[in-house]
Each structure stands twice: as C-alpha cells, then as structure tokens.
Amino acid sequence: MKKAFIGPRIQRLREDLGLNQAELARRLGLSASYLNQIEHNQRPLTTTVLARINATLGVELQVFTEEEQARLVADLREVLGENGGEEAIPLGDIKSLATNMPRIGRALVALHRRSQAAEERLAALAAPPGIPGGAAPTRRPMPYEEVRDFFYHRHNYVAELDEAAERLVAREGLTPGAMESGLEQLLRSRYGVTTTWAETDGTSLNRSYDAERHVLSLSRALSSGQRAFQLATQLAFLDQAALIDRLIECPQLPGPESRALARIGLANYFAGAVLLPYTPFLAATETLSYDIDLLGLRFGVGFETVCHRLSTLQRAEARGVPFFFVRVDRAGNISKRQSATDFHFSRVGGTCPLWNVYEAFAHPGRIVTQMAAMPDGRTYLWIARTVDHSRSGYGTPGKTFAIGLGCDLRHAGKLVYARGLDLAHPEAAMPIGAGCKVCDRPSCPQRAFPPLGRAVRIDEHHSAFDPYPAR
C-alpha cells in the first residue's frame, strides 16, 4: 500500500465513536503517542494498523489509491476553478481536501454539477419564446456522457463481461487471431443465426440483425477482424443479455437512452474481450513490449481495437499498464475517451493544443510520442497515430481520427515506444493541461481562454507574448 496520511479521517472516526486517543490506542494495541502522530499526519497509516482498525472497530476504512485521489483532485480543481472568486485555491489545499475529507470532496463535485444543471435549466426557461437559439440547452448530461462516466467510474474494466468472454473462448476452442469462422458457427449452432452479406454495398451499416428471421447481415467493406468483432457483438446481445441488463441497472444510467447506449457499449466491450482474451492478450503485451502493430497482427485486429483493449487491462490479480485512451478528430472533438487510471479530461472547453494527439494529423499513419507534464506535476508518456475509416467507391467521404494512448511515466519503461526517450529527466516533458479553462499554468502562449477563477492582468500600456497573463 502506498504511504497513506489520513490522520483527520482517523480522528473523526474516533470522535464519532466517542473514544479518546488513549482508549482507541489501547484497543488497537498502539501507544497513545504513536496514534497521536498518525492523527496529525506525522506518521503514515500502515497496512497493519489499517487492518486493526477495520477488525477492531467493525468499520471498513478505505484508503484512496493514488489514481483515485488524483481523479478527485482533478474534479475538484475544475469545480473550484469555476467558483467565480478572484482568489485561486492552492493545489495543496485541494489535495488536502481530497486526502483527508474525500466524502466532502465528492459531495462538492456532485453539488456543483447539480447546481450547474439547475442554472442552465432556469436560463432555458427564462429565454424569450419564439427566438431561434434563444433558449440555452439544459446541462443535464447527454446520454452518451452518462455512459462515458459509467465506464470511467469502473476504470474502464467490466470484470463480469471480461471473465465471461474468456470462459467462452476457452470453452468453444476459439482461436485468437482467426475467430471469424468460429464465431459464425457458434451463432448458427447455438442461436440459429445465419450470417450473410448486406444487400447494398453503399449502406453505412456495418451490422444489421433481423431478429424474426435470425439473419445477421454484415457489410462487405469490413475486414476479417472487423467482421469477427461484429459477430462477437451480436453474440453478446444474445448470450450475455441477462448480465448486460443487470449491469445497466444503476444510478449512473438514469434514462432509457443512456441505458440503451450502455447496452451497446457493454456488448462492444464483450466483443473486444472475446477477440483479445484477457490472459493471452496480457501475456502477449508483455512479450511484445506493448507494440500495438505487432499485437494487431497477432490477434487479427486494427490499431484502434488494440489501443482500446489495452485501456481495459485492470484485473485485480493480473494488471497491465493502466492506460488512458482517446479518439479525436481534426477539430479537436473527442468522440471516445476511456481511462483506466487518473488522467483527467476537462468537461469545460477544449483540450490542450500542445498535446501530441493533434500532432498526429501532421504525420498520417505514423506513431508520434510525447513526454507530457500536467500542472500538478504528474508526467506521462503519450503515443498517437491517425486511423482512417472509409467505404469503397469513388467520391465516398471517409473519416480520419487520431488515436491517443497514454500512461504514467513510471510505467513507460515497459513500452517499446519509450526507447530513445530520456525517462530519467521528466523535467524535459512538454507542459500540457486538461484544457485552457481549467489549466492554471501561469504562463502559456498557446492559451485559448483565461483560467477559470483567476483574474487576468489587463494593462493598456503593456503587451505580452502570453495572451491571458494571470494576476
């Protein structure tokens, strides 16, 4: 366990139970002076003492992991940066709140989001009727945002589906890298599903299922790996329906649209777990030093599929590198983002233009790397590459995205992409942020917006290179 300094939480627990320091120390088999040092954060809480507290007092005192604390700190920085005050709250105070009073921190985040939604609903109701664009949209999260948060809170790992997929692959004798025929046969033998080609090549549909006729139509434009993914997705809807229905019954998915989208997301998750079964895939990542192209060749899937699967390897007893995964377009819109760890994607404004995921568009098809440092001092290794999706036929528009995959710099030595980088000197990393509005770097020439919660220095007699110099 990472050293934990959570003295104020121990003190509150003791006071809630009506115990003085001497009495609690006696129950825990500690000296009163040692307990006093723990409560004042002069000594860390060890695993042994934590176990004694949980066993002796009959409570389950949780210690934040480093990643969980960093997530809460990032959310609090965004929330407190929007408080409208001129005085910026120091990062140290925010970290102290997240460490010592995490429940209050989470309550502040939830309260802020409810308040924000209420304000925008009022603005919409107060807007003059009949004026196009006059009514502001409500800030209740859109269904796809609720689904994204659902996976975020699970650290992008769904153990139930992951384990079910691995059992299915072993039981049916499916071969990673050559699953198309096996999945097609499984659908036919178990569910009477016939697979055929889509009748029209010009359609944008990848997969279409006729439930009455038990016919699954797949696009001819799909590669073998993509067809296998669509077959596995359809298998998820038929074979894992009950489990998926249980998973979507949660407060994070309050509406029918978010639950319907979550069903698709969970079915896609299962499909990825079938094509890239956890144990053999994790073994291959370590053997191949996380080389995405080689992993794609071994398992018969594309670059994006491998990257997405890498961001899910968080089984408790066999963890891979905790990655964060994003997919962006040329305009900076993030259409996919998943995080197995703590990297924070801003909910306010755009992302950082200094991030190498945007540089990838200048080097199509080539992997670009970047050591990047966030304002809180955490340093990461990012890799990015463009991927193209198109339909055959002259003049048919396609789509291009940049895929970004990142991890904390302490894991970078396991990746082939770190070769040649000076990991011993993280100060050489590019300074980036989660987004201009929530980034509190005092000096950034690329800034597009002033930082929330901080006053900008306005002086008609002086002009600076930085567009929004903070006071």
TrEMBL record:
Keywords: DNA-binding, Transcription, Transcription regulation. The lineage of its organism: Bacteria, Pseudomonadati, Pseudomonadota, Alphaproteobacteria, Rhodospirillales. Pfam families: HTH_3 (PF01381), Peptidase_M78 (PF06114), ScfRs (PF09856). It comes from the Bacteria. This is Short-chain fatty acyl-CoA regulator family protein. Residues 10-64 form the HTH cro/C1-type domain. The keyword Transcription applies. Belongs to the short-chain fatty acyl-CoA assimilation regulator (ScfR) family.
